[in-house]
Amino acid sequence: MNNFLKGKAIPVDESCKAEPAGEPIKQLSRENIFSIIINKYAMFVALIVIAIFFQWQTDGVLLVPMNISKLIMQNSYILILAIGMLPCILTGDIDLSVGSVVAVIGAIAGTMIVSMDMPVGLTIITCLVAGLLIGAWQGFWVAFVKVPAFIVTLAGMLLFRGMTMVILNGNTLAPFPESYQFVAQRFLQDIPLVGAIPYSTMILGLILAVCGVYAEWNDHQQKIQYGIPVSGKSWLFTKFGLIVFVSLFSTYWLTQFKGLPIILILLAALIFMYSFICHKTVIGRHIYALGGNERATQLSGIKTKWVRFIVFVNMGLMAAVAGLVFSARLNCAAPSAGTSFELDAIAACYIGGASATGGVGTIIGAVVGGLVMGVLNNGMSILGIGIDWQQGIKGMVLLLAVAFDIYNQNKKA
Questions:
Q1: Which in 36, 80, 212, 341 has the greatest CB count within 10 A?
Q2: Phi/psi of residue 230, each to 5°?
């Protein structure tokens, strides 16, 4: 063990070496592939079914290009919060203060820009630093003082909501300049330099398709390298086809309105970056290990306090980004901003497959969960369903999603 920690090579028994090249590739049976689809892609299937249902019920209104663009823009801040919330849930914690942090960040931005006429760039940097400090404040109490995250973030919810009211003095500050609203309200075709390039949105769609196919192929090859059973070539090429079709058709469909929303580019970058961090980096593996078994993680030498602290600092940063996007989307800073956002972000993670006990969940799953909630909200609003029924239906969806997760866990056990 000491030699391992010092980085020295350890002799390996010949019997422990990998199988020689030329061994047949282990392939999954059809039953195993079907089981993987049910477990791994259940929320994707659910999202498609829900979208088709509301497309039928709304006489085709749900999936028109304009409504899809607005659906993305209206739910962008919830998706950003869900991306930041997932690492918290993976460690077995939760953050109830993100809605209030969104509000206080908007209040800071409104005061600096509208009241004090400060530059937009300086305001954005100040708000991001404020988000980091808020996350560090809460992370300190959770990680080092050992106060339960539920209590710390509940206190933060009240504290930062109060700070918002003090900063704004009960008033709403508006409007923001166009440069501040750029990410939240502009489209790719609205940018003079990029919009001048024909089919700029389709070019991005092609790049996305190539990256998706490469990622899937790379994952397939890594499984073969380590002797993990893989699906057959027919299923692999079917996935390639689906990736290319969805990427190109979705970007083409968006060109029928105003092109790709800029906020979607930001979301894509965040999804890629956080998926890479969670699955391909040391800190990501530490987060999953901490949520899976904290005691074992400590005994393996991982500094669990710092992992938990970093997770909350990151959550503060993502809440700040969501606060900037939300205030830019509304074009104002209001004392009531961000109300119940924490519940939507948490629900998105759980619906997307995150486990309530920690250690299980993916960034993509959290985003899909957020889209499920967004499509439900949008579809029911188009149909004229009252807010009372909307809340009840969303509550049942959340309950069923968590129950499905528990059923799968028990089935595996």
A1: 80
A2: -125, 165
Residue 96 has φ and ψ, to the nearest 5°, of -90, 0
DSSP code at position 14: G
Task: Please return the burial class of 31, using the count of CB atoms within 10 Å of its CB with bins 0-12, 13-18 and 19+.
Answer: exposed
Beta strands in 176-261 (DSSP E): none
Residue of 307, 313, 301 whose CA lies nearest to 281: 307
* CB-CB contact of 96 with 83 (8 Å): no
Q: What is the pLDDT of residue 196?
A: 77
Q: Shortest CA distance to 370 belongs to which of 37, 39, 36, 50?
A: 50
- The CA distance from 287 to 304, in Å, is 9
Average pLDDT by stretches of 10, the chain with 413 residues: 43 44 56 62 83 90 91 93 94 93 95 93 96 96 94 95 93 91 87 78 90 87 79 82 91 88 93 92 93 87 93 96 94 90 91 84 91 91 86 84 72 62
Are 143 and 305 in contact by the 8 Å Cβ rule? The answer is yes
